[in-house]
Amino acid sequence: MLLLLHLFALFLLVLLGFYVFVADPRNRAHQTFAAFISFLAFWTIKDLIFWNFYDEKIGAGWWASASFIIALLMQCSLIVFAWVFPENSRTPRKRASIIFAPSLVLIPSAAFGLLWHKVTLQNGNFIIELAPLAYAFVLYVYFIFFYGAAILYRKYRKYRGTQKGQQIGAILWAVATTGILKTLANIVLPFYGIYYFLPYSAIFVLPGVLIYAYAISNFKLFSLQTALNQFRLFPIAYKIALSIASVAILSFVLFQIPIVWWSFQDGMTLEAWRRYLVFSIISALVPNLLLVLLIVRTISRPLQKITLAAVQVTEGKYGTEIELRKSNDEIGLLANSFNEMSRKMSSDIEQMQQLNEQLIRTEKLAAMGTLAAGVAHEVNNPLASISSLIQIMRLDSNLDDKTRDNLRLISTQIQRISQVTRDMMDFARIRPAAKSLININETIETGLRLASFDKSFQRLELTKHFEKNLPEVYADADQMQQVFLNLFLNARDAMPAGGEILIKTSENENEIIIEISDSGTGIGENDKKKIFDPFFTTKPAGKGTGLGLAVCYGIITAHNGKVEVSSNEAGGTSFAISLPVNETTAN
Length: 587
Prior knowledge:
Radius of gyration: 45 Å
Largest sheet: 5 strands, mixed
Order of helices and strands: HHHHHEEHHHHHHHHHEHHEEHEEHHEE
Number of domains: 3
Oligomer: single chain
């Protein structure tokens, strides 16, 4: 019965200590609790060996030494816990070195048996004759105990009325319960010659330990939700521990018990020991290999995949993702976080590239606008003089027909030059947008009416899909009409033999989307990147200046919108304009 109780106590202590420690391994209070549980587990092991397998040849001195030393170490861990809990503060090293200094003398004294004159176990009765130094040892142990309790009590008064105060209060109850039961079993009753409860002293500590663990785990130790959370977030430490424990138990049941039975069935002879050692070593290889496979599968292989994916990202393959079996441990969380980071990085870099292209295009527009204004100004002045001279010369009645035709041709070319300079001036002119709330469908209709005066545009088949009840847009109506008219006329030029224009409006979240598509000749992939650059055109020489789309781009971006060009299913070109509907102030 006593053996089963010791085994139960040892199993419960190991399980409890591991559970609390893994819940927050970096927390100093949890670390100190794990140290306390370790000392208590050693206490239980020494009691289990001594009280259940006592050997007269070895004696009881080792048990007495271990009892004194472990008791002192447990009280030292109590003080450290009192220092760090609940603030998770550091241990005061100078104070600790002063308080723990006597341990440097007392622990070796206990190890070398200087605390007693005689200790033995005769006929089930424990007999010990203590030396004077033992009483000093006990007084020092109780000094540390009460010192730690006093620190906890001061903190309890400081945090009274809070959850921290409740935790410290519960720990004080645990300390008091453990102290009273240990004192009765190990000191008071043995002082009067009653040693019956001495073998059960390790078991008497369990109630206090449970209260202790319950308090530092925020009173969630026995919570069903906490257990479910621990199962859902199954840490690697739990997996490894469970794997080792399972393999150890299975190995013991499947290999060790049959080997022991087979080896010693004829008695404990030299041959029996030889068989036992040889086959025990061989059988140990199987569980060790199984553990290696489990660790490789659980840790090494996933980490290798994460490492390879990280290397690919550093080489510029942004958006690389890791394909792992879904798990809720740290590696699963790391893999999910890595995939999310890689996707976000890819998206951010793509957005940065778009912004960079937009910035370069805007800088080009600004530079070309300044250049265009200067060129147009320098050309217009002499051009006006030349045009005036031509008009005067054409009024001369003595001119022959050939000269008149030449002057008419010169006047026509001057008009072309004037048109180019007007386009350049329109491109370079900086005019603040007169923004107001406008209906984008009505603005498009106005642009269509202006374009319909062109005979070539009238031959085109027009299809409109306008979404009703679109929210109004804060924009300059004249500038937006200029954009739409320019796009309509460009579509006309792309379909000299006729074709279809599709105009569609829609709402997407906080944006108005306008799509204008044609069934014309389309634009090459290489030209799409340069289509909004000033003076770039795909039209034949003399048919366009390459400023129209650049002006459209400048107007759209000035309205905090975007314009994109793409090929459509009909083989032509589609322009998609997006304008924000929540802009209420002019920039």
